[in-house]
């Protein structure tokens, strides 16, 4: 915070950021991104030397983030043709890329095998037949299994239970392994699992590792990601250290000592390093007090989709004014466009800057054009300097896709 109570992010004043780049604006503390990537990579390597950390790029699929992850020594998992092309554009080495997806297309698999990525995570037998048909030489794969572990998360974030759309049930594993053995262009190097996202305890991760410890010995085990973060003051997620201690201890009990261990953090790398900067357009006191900003569910769908709660503050005078309980709402034409109900903000007025914290994961990913909204720019801040890493969308960008074009 500056001497005049203005919030600083990476040493940059939010007033300067809003003046320079406009609002809404996604703002990231670049040092925070790098520090969290190192904490996970170094922490896992210290506990299990034969290991690899994969950035789960769906959490923040910006080319600059792919590049940052590679610079910090991370590999990358991608979940579609676009993410794969973004990673390649960022010059992430192909042998550090892993392709996910439960409905992979020919185009996705063709690019993966042509660029010789590290592995394709096979979700189903159709994946196998596509790889066999499209690959000219053996392609490494990890086989995704359903561990039967459903953590206590929103239903849309749970991926490890028996009714998951992702992966092969454990009772079908042997049949799929036998099929792979008959294929000329598919090489099974290991097992993959993922139980969900925003998991706030270590016990489900431990049970999932124990589940794959019973499926046989393989060179590689990818135990996924999903570690949750603190969005609100009342949440208490495991620390990176507690998470790594738990999963590595479980791996040491049930997995081969010489196996390679992979994890796939996404949210836990990027969420808390990012915020969204808004400007207040309206303050209305009717049945309730409403503070309406110049963004909303077009730049943060997570609230409407999962009920995720966030904290927010008046960022141009952090300590100024008496707190007032208000509903912080967006400008999209939906009653559900409520960024945070019953939050205390310091005497909000039109023109104030509001920061919503911990929006670094999935806000940019799911940004959309509801009501013709333009997707915000993304800015990295470090050592008091800022740089645009994703330009703000323009109306010309939208109209370029329309017929007939108005401009």
CATH topology of the largest domain: TIM Barrel
The rounded Rg comes to 22 Å
In percent, how helical is the residue content? 25-40%
Largest sheet: 9 strands, mixed
CATH homologous superfamily annotation of the largest domain: Alanine racemase
Q: So what's the CATH class of the largest domain? A: Alpha Beta
How many DSSP E strands?
20
The averaged pLDDT comes out at 94
| Broad shape | globular
Distance between the amino and carboxyl termini? 43 Å
Judging by the overall fold, what is the CATH architecture of the largest domain? Alpha-Beta Barrel
Strand content: 25-35%
Structural class: alpha/beta
What ranges have pLDDT less than 50 throughout 5 or more consecutive residues?
Answer: none
Description:
This protein is an alpha/beta fold. The protein folds into 2 domains: 8-28 and 271-399, Lyase, Ornithine Decarboxylase, Chain A, domain 1, CATH 2.40.37.10; 30-270, Alanine racemase (TIM Barrel, Alpha-Beta Barrel), CATH 3.20.20.10. Helices cover 27% and strands 25% of the residues. It has helices at 14-21, 30-47, 63-71, 81-89, 106-114, 125-134, 173-181, 203-212, 240-254, 267-270, 302-306, 395-399, and strands spanning 8-9, 12-13, 25-29, 51-56, 75-78, 97-99, 119-122, 139-146, 168-169, 186-192, 220-222, 260-263, 274-285, 289-293, 312-314, 323-329, 338-346, 353-356, 377-382, 385-390. α2 (30-47) packs parallel to α9, α5 crosses α6 and α8 (203-212) runs parallel beside α9 (240-254). The mean pLDDT is 94.
